Amino acid sequence: MESSKIRKTRRWLDLIAYLVGCRYPVTVERIMQQVPAYAQRLRAADEEADDAQAKTIRDSVRRMFERDKDELREAGIPIESVKMEVDYGATRIDAYQLKRKDFQLPYLRIVAEAVGDRPPRGAPSLELSSDESARAFQALAAVTELPGFPLVDEARGAWRKLSFDLAPPPVGEPVLFADRAGTAQLTERNRSITDALLRRKRLAFAYHGVYRGTPTERRVRPYGLFFQQGHWYLVGHDEDREDLRLFRVDRMEEPVVNPRSPRTPDFEIPADFSLASYRDRAAWELGPSDEGSLRALVRFEFPISLWADRNRMGELVREEEDGSTVRAFRVQQVDPFLRWILSRRGEARVIDPPELAVRVRDLARATLAVHEAEGGADA
């Protein structure tokens, strides 16, 4: 069972998320119907045959909301009380709202020499002088080097954003940019794929799969092309396998568009196909579907378990008494998944399959060895 602290944290997060998502003030009754923790108890009241007991449950839910609201206000969450008119103005009832502009961080402006953009209309703003911003920049640089600092990612992000205005390259010094190796070939492949997509023509190419030693010949009806996680991907119907497949473009070799009947489409894209369904997939979910996948179980420690739940990371398998959770992931590409696990800094651990947990530890040791070597070289 969950501890009371975990239950309250989840209830608070749900209440905040609901109010932020509402454009207009909402009544207490509406809030209790939409926030899961309140709604669950209200259902118990509706199922209660005893009217007095049902009223007691409803009153307890209302008191829970009032406590949550007051505690969130004390924590700095600006939940605002307003009066709402109903029955054509004959009755005024209590309602609540949480305006985004009051809840978001202010727009930062560096005002020396008019540096910085104007904030969006209606957005709160915070102005820093050049001296103040320089000190903030130096402080952020120092904070990012503190071992174990819990907000190091946020501090590094803020430092990078400030560096555009506060640490420009010397005048006359060029900003260097290098394309990835093979960019020219990738551009040509994308031209062929785009041509096939626009004219609904079949594509033929050799494909170098991750787990195969030799390339395989493919004949595909291309349905869509998208860019994600630093790579281009083609989604299409593999005619030899009679199924939808996903291909990474940089593993394709010399795609050839069907030259027959150039003005006549070879196929029509099915009406139920949606390229958007691939848009938000993680890197480890984007491997070719015919190369196999594995099911990984990951344990998330509390409180990152709340983050994993709210962001729907994987599929919930079970909840532990200490607030941690075990979630299942379908992994198409192992290496990106292992790197993502390492980025959680020990708060997410692979517990199954055992061989995958061993690979995580091996990757952690290899990463540590690289950093130790770099530190020794700098010393």
What distinguishing features does this structure have?
379 residues, alpha+beta, Arc Repressor Mutant, subunit A, SH3 type barrels, 4 domains, 5-stranded antiparallel beta sheet, 4-stranded antiparallel beta sheet, 11 helices
Question: For the largest beta sheet, what order do the strands appear in spatially?
Answer: 9-8-7-6-10
**Proportion of residues in β-strands:** 15-25%
What CATH calls the topology of the largest domain is: SH3 type barrels
Compute the gyration radius: what is it? 28 Å
* Strands, count: 14
As a percent range, the share of helical residues equals 40-55%
| Tally of individual helices | 11
CATH architecture of the largest domain: Roll
Into how many domains do the coordinates divide?
4
CATH class of the largest domain: Mainly Beta
Characterize the biggest β-sheet.
5 strands, antiparallel
| Spans where pLDDT lies below 50 across 5 or more residues | none
> Based on helices, strands and strand pairing, what is the structural class?
alpha+beta
Q: N-to-C terminal Cα separation, in Å?
A: 51 Å
Overall geometry comes to globular
What would the average pLDDT be, to the nearest integer? 81
